[in-house]
């Protein structure tokens, strides 16, 4: 009983040292990069009895933030951007038992482009080794969302088999490089699409086998050339509207179309009857649908840690920006001037 009281007092002391306001990247309306606001007096979230408050060190940058900013995915305003981060537990609710103040963690949660974020202890959060370096924290912040997306999609959206031919767009981006590596580990033949030869060579280094330059090549013709006219077993398409017709044509009979992005805008509505000609299956998955149950999160997060620690999976953190420079980061990302993963360093 005494120990419990002392622990509660200790937690309270820790919490009283936490500021009431913080620095964040927030949107108050939808639009282009000009609607992004770096604010220094945004409220620090309050935690409930089963939640943790995390002081963020790094946050991963993902293309999905542009969908929230543009209004493709509606949100209440004001809205703090961000999907993933790493950092340290600085406060915890009275019912929390799995984590302690001072624990280093990596986690998935909205609103991580901020100095402080909160998450339930039963949410998608993993404890990292106590001696984790800043570099290790950066790797996990940069790998978590995209690597888990690739890991779940190639096992559940379409279960990739050895010798499958897989069409992959944006193959040199953060998600693309994750798919390259994990598809190669599955024994698949990756047909990579990217906008420059330099990006394609990077995709090849990470596991792609066949290369298509989207600015110079006929994507469909190349796919048919590489597959002896049969088409691919599955396609992972993060582009959306501009590539829908190409992807549909590139699939073989009984192929699977995994659509998971809107880089060029949402896919135009189409009649389902169009899938019948080749018995095509289509999926529109999102990561959180595969890790919603605690046992699912445990399975996939454990596998990701194994892949990272064994060096079977490598996260290419190509550039780190200060939090205040997120606008510059997203402008470069949207202009396709970046490769690999971009990360924000939180002050």
Question: What's a concise summary of this model?
Answer:
This protein has about 350 residues and is α/β, with parallel strands linked by helices. The protein has helices at about 1-15, 65-70, 135-155, 175-185, 195-205, 220-225, 245-250, 295-310, 325-335; strands at about 20-25, 35-45, 50-60, 80, 85-90, 105-110, 115-120, 125, 165-170, 190-195, 210-215, 230-235, 250-260, 280-285, 315-320, 340-345.
Which runs of at least 5 residues are low in confidence (pLDDT < 50)? Answer: 1-16
Order of helices and strands: HEEEHEEEEEHEHEHEHEHEEHEHE
Note the gap between the termini: 38 Å
CATH architecture name of the largest domain: Alpha-Beta Complex
Report the biggest beta sheet as strand number plus sense, adding barrel if it closes. Answer: 7 strands, mixed
Give the oligomeric state.
single chain
Indicate the percent of residues in helices. 25-40%
Please state roughly what percent of the residues sit in beta strands, choosing from under 5%, 5-15%, 15-25%, 25-35%, 35-45% or over 45%: 25-35%
Radius of gyration: 21 Å
Number of strands: 16
* Global shape: globular
Helix-and-strand structural type:
alpha/beta
Q: What is the count of distinct domains?
A: 2
How would you describe what is shown here?
This is Probable quinone oxidoreductase. Keywords: NADP, Oxidoreductase. GO terms for molecular function: mRNA 3'-UTR AU-rich region binding; NADPH binding; quinone reductase (NADPH) activity; zinc ion binding. It comes from Lachancea fermentati (Zygosaccharomyces fermentati). The chain has two domains: 2-145 and 294-345, Medium-chain alcohol dehydrogenases, catalytic domain (Quinone Oxidoreductase, Chain A, domain 1); 163-284, Rossmann fold. 31% of the residues lie in helices and 27% in strands. The protein contains nine helices and 16 strands. The radius of gyration is 21 Å and the shape is globular. Mean pLDDT is 93; it is low at 1-16.
